[in-house]
Amino acid sequence: QLELVESGGGLAQSGGSLRLSCVVSGSSLNTYAIAWFRQAPGKEREGVSCISRRPGSAEYADPVKGRFTVSRDNAKNTAYLQMDNLKPEDTAVYFCAAVGQWICSLTHEYEYWGKGTQVTVSS
After folding, report:
1. Per-10-residue mean pLDDT for the chain, 123 residues long?
2. Which of 15, 17, 32, 119 pairs as cysteine with 98 (C-beta 3.0–4.6 A)?
3. Residue 75 phi/psi, 5° resolution?
């Protein structure tokens, strides 16, 4: 059973940065595409970004393009979400998710989920 654990959330000021980590255990990260989702209070969960098993292939939702960068280190079994130029509307619980696909997509049905990490951005 694959387990995902997020960390790195916290409080940041508008314009600041945070880096989220997603540590995978139970299997090798390099057999999964990884995605990041977020859910703000009172809103539906939305896809933020994903990264494929194929090197250099990633996808970003429009609200985060140019500000967030997704990456992975298969040797460390860890995926990352670097979040720069944060805005108050980025406030949400952020989840990482995994699916046994070669190419990622934010529309995939992800099989495994972490419990999330809270990100709060103050104005």
Report:
1. 96 98 96 97 96 89 98 96 98 97 92 98 96
2. 32
3. -65, -30
